[in-house]
Write a structure and sequence with these properties.
Blueprint (H helix, E strand, L loop, with lengths): L3 H45 L5 H10 L1 H29 L4 H31 L11 H21 L1 H18 L4 H23 L12 H14 L4 H10 L5
Helix pairs in contact: 1-3, 1-8, 1-9, 2-5, 3-4, 4-5, 4-6, 6-7, 7-8
Length: 251
């Protein structure tokens, strides 16, 4: 008896399950990254940092040290999600253009690595304000100023990393739009969000007065729509299979 047709059907079923599993995992990781990033990069700094008052900022960090450290822990969650997403999104999008999917993964990883460096400036105030003996030679007011300066450098570094993140999402948006197994509107939304990140980065470098933070809100529609779609709808497996077959991609 010829078992080849049964084996082919089983292989196709296994690949279909694998693709949808990747899609579901990507949806979960994108949501976790969004929540952790919002908490660690927006909520916690807004509660603790007083931009023009070093003393008040230092007092807040000392009074709410657990919240301050939770902000850093949230970043670690976000970073781990983003690293895993670099691989998973590459797998999902490589049937369209393997080289562009790989380039997007590289930009995403570089963005995560650069942001990791800026996070050192976020954590530094816990050392500066920690009361260690070797810091007693520095006046408390100066320590407060150094702590606030470190947080400002963290903010600046965190913003500047988004140029790499933006390029990654422009490339992924293009691949989503061209894929046929994911809705085109998701590709458009993610491309617009990525372009907004890139534009704000260059405005900060060339004309800071014209770099509104509201530009980053353009990432929000796609940032919410894509994970929800992947989590609840996934990809069109039949079209993914066709695209993968024509591009000679094996999962």
């Amino acid at each position: 008896m010829d078992t080849a047709p049964n084996e082919d059907r089983q292989l196709a079923l296994t690949r279909a399950v694998s693709v949808q599993t990747y899609a579901r995992i990507a949806g979960i990781l994108l949501l976790l990254s969004l929540i952790a990033g919002g908490f660690g990069e927006a909520y916690v700094p807004s509660k603790l940092i007083v931009p023009s008052d070093a003393t008040a900022t230092a007092q807040n960090i000392k009074a709410f040290e657990s919240l301050f450290r939770m902000g850093f822990a949230a970043y670690l969650v976000e970073a781990m999600c983003d690293i895993a997403l670099s691989l998973i999104l590459y797998v999902l999008l490589r049937p369209v253009r393997k080289d562009i999917a790989l380039l997007a993964a590289f930009f995403g990883l570089v963005g995560t690595a650069v942001f990791a460096t800026s996070e050192l400036f976020y954590l530094a105030p816990s050392v500066i304000l920690g009361g260690a003996g070797y810091l007693k030679t520095i006046a408390p007011e100066q320590l407060n100023t150094l702590a606030l300066l470190s947080l400002k450098l963290f903010t600046y570094g965190g913003v500047m990393f988004t140029v790499f993140y933006g390029v990654a999402w422009v490339l992924r948006g293009y691949l989503i739009f061209r894929s046929g197994y994911l809705p085109k509107f998701l590709g458009v939304l993610m491309t617009l969000g990525g372009l907004a990140f890139i534009a704000r980065n260059f405005l900060l470098a060339l004309a800071p007065a014209y770099a509104p933070g509201s530009l980053l809100l353009l990432m929000l529609p796609g940032g919410l729509a894509l994970p929800l779609w992947l989590l609840f709808r996934g990809v069109d497996v039949r079209k993914w299979e066709v695209t993968a077959a024509t591009s000679d991609v094996n999962l």
